[in-house]
Amino acid sequence: MKAMVKWGVLGVAKIAVEKVIPAMNLGDESDVIAIASRDRAKAERAAGELGLPKAYGSYEELLSDPEIEAVYNPLPNDLHVPWTVKAAEAGKHVLCEKPLALSAEEAKQLIKVRDRTGVKIEEAFMIRTHPQWLGVRELVREGEIGELRAIQGFFSYYNRDPQNIRNIPHMGGGGLMDIGCYPITTSRFVLGQEPMRVVGLMENDPEMHIDRLSSGIMEFPSVQSSFVCSTQLVPHQRMNFFGTKGRIEIEIPFNAPPDRPCRILIDDGDLLGRNCVVNEFPVCDQFTVQGDLFSRSIREDSEPAVSLEDSVRNMAVIDAFVRSAASGTWETPSVYLA
């Protein structure tokens, strides 16, 4: 039996201490043993609450610990690349929160670092390994709804706290970066294709200067995908896939609950839903699944579930939406990985 991978966490971000660390430590292949903060007291408090044996008063201390094999990086968006680079150069594998970088060009740095250091680096799009998304992709590709022609997504929450990192422009805040990236990556994931061009609209908050309402259309070779995301609307999320013979709706596509089954709805277009079929997926925590799969890729020296090349392409689509919102025209995602 292979030993569990020993993990350390950079920072005491809410997502780390409330969701990711507890979930990873429920897994069979991941063992989070350390957490670091620039405030040692915060690290010690988090370690105590989570039952972690090690706490550090700086990120550098954690990276110098030879027992740590892999690092989870949930720092603010503008620190994703710098600290992922430092972790990789310290010989640590890195699972980095989304969005991986502030641009495709910045994200490309990580490919060079990965190739130079030999570590594994993955963007933490936990949805990409959740059974409901794997199930949807399989149904679409098997022709369950006929020929897929349109994808529609919606993702929103309400947050007007000016101190929240999601509302600070230079830290990579804004709706498109925080949640618009989800319908982008899932459209690409299900289709296995890249959009040929995109067009987007952004409405900025007049005080915080981040996009609070963004909409976009992606034109794929045979499919149109559209979405709306907002940081200042009633919380809601849905993804719909429309084919020539049916439709698939994911009930809770992004914040999949860890304590009850997830459901997708499949119907044939009857407006009263008389032929609707509900597919349930067994209870699982997507952060547990994500952590164990990344740990397994380390032990088996296999490819991570989400490649860096894929993440760079996703960032290129986000870049194109930003350009389109500024230019008012269609833009082509462009990225050269060589």
Account of the 3D structure:
The protein has 338 residues and is an alpha/beta fold. It has two domains: 5-125 and 288-303, NAD(P)-binding Rossmann-like Domain (Rossmann fold, 3-Layer(aba) Sandwich), CATH 3.40.50; 127-287 and 317-327, Dihydrodipicolinate Reductase, domain 2 (2-Layer Sandwich), CATH 3.30.360. Helix content is 34%, strand content 26%. The protein has an eight-stranded mixed β-sheet, with helices on one face. It has a six-stranded parallel β-sheet with strand order 3-2-1-4-5-6, with helices on both faces. The protein starts with a strand and ends in an 11-residue tail after the last helix. The model has no long low-confidence stretch (mean pLDDT 97).
Summary tags:
338 residues; alpha/beta; Rossmann fold; Dihydrodipicolinate Reductase, domain 2; 2 domains; 8-stranded mixed β-sheet; 6-stranded parallel β-sheet; 9 helices
Helix content: 25-40%
Name the CATH superfamily assignment of the largest domain: Dihydrodipicolinate Reductase, domain 2
| Rg value | 20 Å
Low-confidence stretches: none
Shape: globular
Major β-sheet annotation: 8 strands, mixed
Note the gap between the termini. Answer: 39 Å
Return the CATH architecture of the largest domain: 2-Layer Sandwich
Name the structural class: alpha/beta
Q: What is the CATH T-level topology of the largest domain?
A: Dihydrodipicolinate Reductase, domain 2
Number of domains: 2
Beta-strand residue percentage: 25-35%
Instruction: Determine and state the CATH class of the largest domain.
Output: Alpha Beta
- What is the count of helical runs? 9
List the secondary-structure elements in sequence, H or E: EHEHEHEHEHEHEHEEEEEEEHH
Total strands: 14
Mean pLDDT: 97
Q: Within the largest sheet, what's the order of strands?
A: 8-9-10-7-11-12-13-14
